[in-house]
Amino acid sequence: MTSVASTTADGRAPKKDPWELPDVSGMRVGVLGGTGDQGRGLAYRLARSGMAVTIGSRAAERAQQAAEEIGHGVRGADNAECARESDIVIVAVPWEGHAKTIESLREELAGKLVVDCVNPLGFDKKGAYALVPEEGSAAEQAAALLPESRVTAAFHHLSAVLLSDPEVEEIETDVMVLGEVRADCEIVQALAGRIPGMRGVFAGRLRNAHQVESLVANLISVNRRYKAHAGVRLTDI
């Protein structure tokens, strides 16, 4: 048997292929806010890819009804049960209820990998515009409120319409993933890659989450002008 050297000729460990991502197929995914458009769409796509998915809502009955409509084995539960039974928890709640929802689930989310995809936006007669939370971003607010969780940020730029459309087989877009621990980001990247057409791309630490979240305001303007469902595709990688 031929052994593979664990170091390079100069004694350094070889660089890891950035596209070498972990197998997440056995992980359980929870979606808080899973009865909203974005949450339902993500739950549908991930369940369709073979992931075990539970959607959460303040009312278990509402979540269970939405889960039946989504199908593909999706379960419905109240937010606390959804958080407890999941390995990865996606936060897809409205910005207005973001802090309150997360704070109320601090115990259930302890030790969990949390993926925040909330976009703090305001709307007026000129259209959508980015809000700046006191902590800097929604993801940083989540990290501040969940000191015992592993918080990342991802899935901000996805069209709920495309996510929920069963006629759309592939969604050609990139998902920018941010976080403090590279291994956690790679899990989220791999999760994004479960959805045909998507790539999960590492995009920096949580301190850079604000501009990723705020880009959604620009995408809304693009979509209104061109009657499209635009996403983001990064070049040269």
TrEMBL record:
InterPro entries linked: NAD(P)-bd_dom_sf, NpdG, P5C_Rdtase_cat_N, STEAP_metalloreductase
Positions of region (Disordered): 1-21
Gene this chain is encoded by: npdG
UniProt-listed Gene3D superfamilies: NAD(P)-binding Rossmann-like Domain
The protein, known as: NADPH-dependent F420 reductase
Keywords for the protein's UniProt record, in alphabetical order: Oxidoreductase
Pfam families (alphabetical): F420_oxidored (PF03807)
Residues in Pyrroline-5-carboxylate reductase catalytic N-terminal domain copies: 28-120
